Amino acid sequence: MSLSSLAPQEIADRLERARADYESFAARGLNLDITRGKPSAAQLDLADPLLTAVSPGDVRSADGTDTRNYGGLAGLLELREIFAPLLGVPAAQLLAQGTSSLTLMRDALSFAMLHGRPGSAGPWVREPVRMLCPVPGYDRHFQLAASLGFELIPVGMDGQGPDIAQIAELTRTDASIKGIWIVPVHSNPTGLSMSVQRARELMELTTAAPDFTVLWDNAYALHHLREPHPEPIDVLGLAAEAGHPDRPLIFASTSKITFAGAGVAFVGGSPAMVDWFSRHTGDGSIGPDKINHLRHARFFGSPEGVRDHMRKHAELLAPKFAAVDEVFTRELGPDDLAAWTRPAGGYFVTLAVPPGTAAHVVKLAAEAGVKLTPAGATHPHGIDPDDAIIRIAPSMPPLEEVVEAAEVVAACVRVAAYETAASASAD
Amino acid sequence: MSLSSLAPQEIADRLERARADYESFAARGLNLDITRGKPSAAQLDLADPLLTAVSPGDVRSADGTDTRNYGGLAGLLELREIFAPLLGVPAAQLLAQGTSSLTLMRDALSFAMLHGRPGSAGPWVREPVRMLCPVPGYDRHFQLAASLGFELIPVGMDGQGPDIAQIAELTRTDASIKGIWIVPVHSNPTGLSMSVQRARELMELTTAAPDFTVLWDNAYALHHLREPHPEPIDVLGLAAEAGHPDRPLIFASTSKITFAGAGVAFVGGSPAMVDWFSRHTGDGSIGPDKINHLRHARFFGSPEGVRDHMRKHAELLAPKFAAVDEVFTRELGPDDLAAWTRPAGGYFVTLAVPPGTAAHVVKLAAEAGVKLTPAGATHPHGIDPDDAIIRIAPSMPPLEEVVEAAEVVAACVRVAAYETAASASAD
What we know:
Chain A is an alpha/beta fold. Chain A has helices spanning 8-26, 41-46, 77-87, 101-115, 139-147, 164-173, 196-204, 235-241, 271-282, 290-300, 303-332, 358-367, 399-426; strands at residues 32-33, 94-96, 130-134, 151-155, 157-158, 161-162, 177-182, 213-217, 248-253, 265-268, 339-340, 349-352, 370-371, 389-392. In chain A, the strands form four sheets. Chain A has a seven-stranded mixed β-sheet, with helices on both faces. In chain A, strands 11-12-14 form a three-stranded antiparallel β-sheet, covered by helices on one side. A two-stranded parallel sheet of chain A has the order 1-13. In chain A, helix 7 links the parallel strand 7 (177-182) and strand 8. Chain A is globular, with a radius of gyration of 23 Å. Chains A and B meet through helix 2, helix 4, helix 5 and helix 10 of A and helix 2, helix 4, helix 5 and helix 10 of B.
């Protein structure tokens, strides 16, 4: 049954029940937070052996380097070798750096602004820069680009990735469009993964900007919730085949693999792009924290070690995603009040509520003690023109709190949807 | 006795002996490196308890924060509180960040370039920027500034700090002079520490640029070799009193206190400057590695814990500096062939050889198996107009290698000096 087929009295009855449910939740004095994609304590515990993986007297890497001293700008080779096959980047073209891939993105864009990148006519800062933003997308990507003064241009998405026809049209003539954000696997927040064909098309595009850059943020490359899961895309191979080897810059980190904010971040690309990144990084760094690299290399041991570890994450996360789906199906399904994703990986559920109600749902939830990411956060400049998209992050709270939070959100959606329907039927 | 008072035959005899000594060193097949200020393995061992200071089940900071998860952009408060009195910056105005203070300097300058800083008319990138560089100084400072396209302007130094009259004259009318590099304590490479009076004068200067910035790199704040040592300068207090509270940006790190490249870096300033730095950092970071902060806070426990630790460093370092002085006094003193510093702290000895011979000495040393920092590295763009300054970094090799390296360097200085004198007396 869909909302529009309901009689006015049916809507009024449902609204009354929704309000009663909502009030009973609100009376509980809840304090729940499903705003951010943070790992739970149980997930973090999985990586606790990291803490003691490098101990006194045992501080040398495989090649004998004392990891406690300066040097090694590219990061520890044995760690880069573990992540190279997982990320589809040769170890020689993959740098292991500090703890944050977002910082590496900031660095890359700052370097481009101040110096230009390989293929640039000059520093980006000399001209207006526009950046394509597939929506819904990651709020920190958009905020970072906005902070650099970029104009953000929303681009639609489908099941294969961002709308390539739209991208082709925009980039063909507009040389100020310098790049696009891509989360290729288990995208934040949709959970969608890009198809190889779409990635190939993106690499093949003829763009007006000679230095059009795909910021390939593979944040959830290994973060599968169930089988089958997407295989790594050889984006560097596709880019080289297409004659645009320097187009992608690849980012990843272990923040949602080991410790959030205390893991290791990676950046990779063509030899020219990696040289460029290294050179500018080297102007402000003697080298990254190799002790933390060694901890990670020892903890994982091999690419398969990483995959095994991620299966343990999935065991903890999958029930939470299933619970959200179960609650939404039960509460929102009968009257078809909303649509939501059932992601095969990543950290988010995207909830699409009736247009014009997302901000209201977020406000209602906050008043009932459930914090949600602000409506609009998934869109450039925080503005969702349809006011319809809400990002749910169920990873951090314990399962019973996830269930409770989802129930509150569902009650809020019901209140907002039936209120809107009631007001429409009263017109 | 000085070189100029020697008869030609005396010079010829001495040159012959110097060459014989040099050849006997060269025949040993040495492979010594005194190029960089790296701590020795024994110094690093002092901090080994850090490696196990945070262990499974014991990962929370004093306020109960799980340091393994995201958040806390300012860094762990308990660590900031330990370093606040040591650096003369209130904890609320001191950020603990990643591992490298050089990176924080790069970030600060990049933020200023792209956005301007408090007091700026706009982004620095819009106009030419000139930066004052006290010489001899730190090559990485100069390289960083040059990489951003800054014009580097050398400034002289005396026993109290950089030449304030010269700085006053340069900054009074030239608004493109946006800043100055300062290493206030045990300066790299001279070992000189700034006087309070000179710091006050620097803060009081009326500069044409409203956003003139003192990059106060307190890299050796606590790195004393002997008593008495300089007390911390309250540069923020001096700046506020002078009516220029936003002038200094203070940097420091534990790279030469705990682990080089795997310690914790700090940045501090006025509330406005710290807000500014934080805001831009927050566009590209969710927060620094709090686990490493917690390790450091636990390892030190208190400011006095840091001071105690630094006394152990001094015990290891002081004999190496004494050895360099002893060798140079013995080999270079009799004919007054060179001047060198006897620093009370820091990581370097500055050796001033006869003008025109520094590059030759470095080359001779390399050919005899002793790597020195390139001559000129202590000057902007790597050019020492007098070709006279050589930086010696005796910290890393074991004591016997330091002695050997100093003897080789001394032999090279003797060869170069007597060659020059012989050629002058032959004219």
